[in-house]
UniProtKB/TrEMBL annotation, chain A:
<dbReference type="InterPro" id="IPR016039">
    <property type="entry name" value="Thiolase-like"/>
</dbReference>
<dbReference type="Pfam" id="PF22691">
    <property type="entry name" value="Thiolase_C_1"/>
</dbReference>
<protein>
    <recommendedName>
        <fullName>Thiolase C-terminal domain-containing protein</fullName>
    </recommendedName>
</protein>
<dbReference type="InterPro" id="IPR055140">
    <property type="entry name" value="Thiolase_C_2"/>
</dbReference>
<dbReference type="InterPro" id="IPR002155">
    <property type="entry name" value="Thiolase"/>
</dbReference>
<feature type="domain" description="Thiolase C-terminal">
    <location>
        <begin position="261"/>
        <end position="383"/>
    </location>
</feature>
<dbReference type="GO" id="GO:0003988">
    <property type="term" value="F:acetyl-CoA C-acyltransferase activity"/>
</dbReference>
From TrEMBL, chain B:
<dbReference type="Pfam" id="PF01796">
    <property type="entry name" value="OB_ChsH2_C"/>
</dbReference>
<dbReference type="InterPro" id="IPR002878">
    <property type="entry name" value="ChsH2_C"/>
</dbReference>
<dbReference type="InterPro" id="IPR052513">
    <property type="entry name" value="Thioester_dehydratase-like"/>
</dbReference>
<dbReference type="InterPro" id="IPR012340">
    <property type="entry name" value="NA-bd_OB-fold"/>
</dbReference>
<protein>
    <submittedName>
        <fullName>Zn-ribbon domain-containing OB-fold protein</fullName>
    </submittedName>
</protein>
<dbReference type="Pfam" id="PF12172">
    <property type="entry name" value="zf-ChsH2"/>
</dbReference>
<feature type="domain" description="ChsH2 rubredoxin-like zinc ribbon">
    <location>
        <begin position="23"/>
        <end position="55"/>
    </location>
</feature>
<dbReference type="InterPro" id="IPR022002">
    <property type="entry name" value="ChsH2_Znr"/>
</dbReference>
<feature type="domain" description="ChsH2 C-terminal OB-fold">
    <location>
        <begin position="58"/>
        <end position="125"/>
    </location>
</feature>
Amino acid sequence: MAENNKACIVGIGQSEFTRWGGIHDRSQFQITAEAISAAIADAGLTVNDVDGFASFSDDENEATLMQVALGVPVLRWSSMVWGGGGGGSIAALSQACAAVESGQAHTVVMYRGLCQGQGQRFGQAGKKRVHGNYILPYGLFAPPQMLALMMQRYMHLYPITHDHLAEVALNARANANRNPRAVMYEKPLTREDYFNGRWIAEPFRLYDCCLETDGACAVVVTTKERARDLKAPLIEVASAIHGSGPGWGTGPLGSHNMPDEDYASTNSRRLAPELFARAGMTPADIDVAQIYDHFSGLVLMALEEYGFCDKGESGAFVAEGSIRWPNGKLPINTSGGQLSEAYVHGVNLLLEGVRQLRGESTSQVKDARTCLVTGGLGVSPTSGTILRRH
Amino acid sequence: MSYFPKEMPRPVPAMNDTEFLRGCAERHLRFQACAACGMLRHPPMPICSHCHSTAEKWVEAPTTAKVYSFTVVHHASHPAVKASLPYVVALLEFPALPGVRLVSNITHVDPSEVRIGMQVDLWWDDIGEDMFLPRFRPMEKIKA
């Protein structure tokens, strides 16, 4: 691919973030349109420049309606990633990149809008799941319970303790406390509060589980050639991929029949090395990371699978303060992540990645030039991107 | 009297599920296997992922299993389970049947006593309308 065609993120936009049910005066579609409109304006573009949309996982904000609502004159690309819940977030980014890099479209907006007060709450039973016959009659209804099975096995196999899970949750909250956009801004969490949190599904306590929120996020993707003419710093998508190992399609949200060697994992074992190889980087090149934190413990697994520490050593890694801002080796989830900023199915993590590389984070990592962002862990597909500022 | 209240979701026969559920209704736990290469698969699928044969057979599972993983559920994500909290959802393996695991419940034990590797024994829970579901209880509880 010619260097001029390389995909760059040139605009970001969002609605306000609230607890679930907090947005009731506008529709989910409307706040999504607002986020997209904000992202286009942030890029210094107009709807006349946009010719594509990408989203993921049963998105209800149809791209073809969005085109009409926003007055986009010509649509050349509309895609939605199959399955995967939040695993589709960076997968949708990878599709937007594929579209602009191949010339199928010029400027694609990737988005997600979620108003759980207007639709289905993710933490409750109700979503029709593939192979529900094998889980629902047994009381396996919602993601915290489903992923708890994998986490329990992971903690059985490796020296991972509740203190290590707490470290992930407390880090997220400390970062959210510096971020006025975060739902948990000005709501401190102590270690004692964490351990007093009620059990949801062992080994997950309340503060191990992501928020359920209302909110929308969007990013604008175009080629480097076009990006050079815009006002924002040049943030290149060095690589963005999605995929899955065997057996995960019915995996944690279904029968749990993934191969034994993959079971207690985030399904990123194959994807992560490929992501780094395509970017021409190694984990040592990453300055800051936004790691999909629907549940604290899967962040630990991901630190291992993405190569920041060895298998089974993520507990010791976080206990040393490695993920803490500002002095950790690898500050993560610097906006508060999905545990404490908002749960916009992973796209708020992508926005924070861009802010870090623009120097606009409320927990800014000094001179950050590279950021890893992962999409939903422990599902199929899962996804990841490496962003680089030139 | 079933382990969960009658408001609990019931299995609804679908394309590949019919034979598995027929087994349950007859109180036989059977896994699907490829009739050509013998590879086991669960949940049931219309084609063998190994040899792509669509011919299938059904293999009776042992009545004892081993806990591969589990969770103790404390939060009701469905109104039907409110009175059953906390309950144990376990993932069970059958060492004689490689490649298939079953999601079920561990009953007749304090949830705090459940461990990975624990041996459990199958019992059939009558959920009414001529349907039974496989659930499990610890072996040592049966001896005692």
